[in-house]
Amino acid sequence: ITSKIQRLQLLNNSDITFPPNPVKQRSAMPPNFVHSLDSTHMMLTALDCQKSGIPFVAVHDSYWAHGRNIDEMNKFCREQFVALHSQPILKDLANFFEDNFGGLPYKTNKEGKMVTSFLKELPSQ
């Protein structure tokens, strides 16, 4: 399909003549996974705001609340970031891949533990 601003090619995904491209799949997975973590963090923050009656708006990684609620929203944002990233996210992902696709190596993310430890120590203001 060709228009004035773009050309679009429709492919039938079930057609075996168009198998998935492993290189594209490998390069697309990490940013999509990180995006899923970012969106999970946003939703957890939004849920905390909702429980506290704070109107909350977000676009991508930009969180908004009324000025009088910023300190509380920031507190929720930090708490949820630490809670999310204190989980064994990469290990769980590696286990999922291993269970479903065969053995994959997993290495402990020491830097991730350092970041969450640092964030816990930051003052709330």
What is the 3D shape?
flat
Task: Provide the structure class.
Answer: mainly alpha
Distance between the termini: 53 Å
Series of H and E elements: HEEHHH
Overall mean confidence score, pLDDT: 83
* Contiguous helical run count: 4
**Ranges with pLDDT <50 over ≥5 residues?**
none
Number of domains: 1
Strand content: under 5%
Q: Give the number of DSSP strands.
A: 2
Largest sheet: 2 strands, antiparallel
Give the SSE map:
Blueprint: H1 22-51, E1 57-59, E2 62-64, H2 70-85, H3 89-101, H4 110-121
Antiparallel strand pairs: 1-2
Helix pairs in contact: 1-2, 2-4
Quick summary:
By secondary structure, the protein is mainly alpha-helical. Helix content is 57%, strand content 5%. Strands 1-2 form a two-stranded antiparallel sheet.
Plain-language structure description:
- The protein is mostly helical and 125 residues long.
- The chain has one domain (23-121).
- Helices cover 57% and strands 5% of the residues.
- It has four helices and two strands; from the N terminus they run H-E-E-H-H-H.
- It has helices at residues 22-51, 70-85, 89-101, 110-121, and strands spanning 57-59, 62-64.
- Strands 1-2 form a two-stranded antiparallel sheet.
- The N and C termini lie far apart (53 Å).
- InterPro entries: DNA-dir_Rpol_C_phage-type, DNA-dir_Rpol_phage-type, DNA/RNA_pol_sf.
- It catalyses: RNA(n) + a ribonucleoside 5'-triphosphate = RNA(n+1) + diphosphate.
- Residues 3-108 form the DNA-directed RNA polymerase C-terminal domain.
- It is an enzyme of class 2 (transferase).
- Keywords: DNA-directed RNA polymerase, Nucleotidyltransferase, Transcription, Transferase.
